[in-house]
Give the backbone structure.
Amino acid sequence: MAGKKDEVTAALASFREGRPEVADDLVAVEQLHERKLWHQLTVKLLDLLSQPCFDKGSDLVGFYNNFVASFSDHMNKLSLVRLAELICRQVDAAETATTFLEAVREKVKEDTEASVYADMLLATIQLHRAGDLEATKKLLEGAEERLAALPHVDSAIHAAYFRVSADYCKKRGIFSDFYREALKFLGVAELSSLPLAEQQARAFDIGVAGLLGEGIYNFGELLGHPVVKSLQGTEHAWLAELLVAFNTGDIAAFERLQPKVVEQQDLSGSSELLREKIRLLAVMELVFHRPADSRNLHFSDIADAAKVPLAQVELLVMRALSLKLIRGSLNEVEQRVSVEWVQPRVLTIDQIGFMERRVSEWCKQVDSTVLEVEKSTPDLFV
């Protein structure tokens, strides 16, 4: 017993010599260890190893092996994996990091959340350091199956899963899947935990993916997320304006932003796709702004909204119908489109305000109708 204590004391003393800037913290760590206050010790270590001074160096793996491993069985399993995550930022070699994390995963294999979190750390290494897409896919599939079996999952676990899933889709170049998985990540992640540079990079990548993604005709959820604000004041601020233009079918704004669009490699090579998408969104927005009893649209109304020649309206409407963006019927003889339904979308604050005004107007119409009925049939209301 005394031998183990001496080994721990020696390990801490050695670590303290190499890290004089955190000497006082390490004294506190040693005291908590001596008193066997495992929870408090875990919290202290997570806070300590999060400090920027540990971003560089090569002493944390040794610190884990010589100190943390001696009481790891007493630690909360998820906290142990989070500690391993902090340690891994000092390990550059993918093989070394994988070996270390696999050993940690073995320690927490009985805890589903902790083991999934460990797998996502392994997947991150396989994806970004080793470039092994197949290994990443297998880890994601295994994690998805285990998470589905849990009645409740810590948001940090879901965030770790969706982060890797989104990055995997991005590596494969699947814009629509990346967009959806990235939004799920933003929905559960603490935005404040992401460095500003990462927020800006993710906002830009997600925005571009949404514009190019197949089947993406709604940007309300992304525009409603504060991550988009991170683009303000940057060289990519125009992208937020472009997303608003697409979400509202504002073709004039799209044309105004063309000089910026053509400078972006992915967007510049997809000009026809972008034009078709914003024209379809213009049709959806036109229908959205029409009262439910006034959705019998003339071709000229659609041509004006989508900025297309009258001869192209029929094809545009047929495209919208085939994509199930709208439902209705087409009358070629009368050049009219009767729309019964428009695909639901996540609304922006401005769009919600428009709906509020419409509901208010509807309420006034109902009140007016009630008054007219009361005047016309007074005997029924005696």
Remarks:
- Residues 349-376 form the longest helix (28 residues).
- Residues 60 and 87 are 6 Å apart (CA to CA).
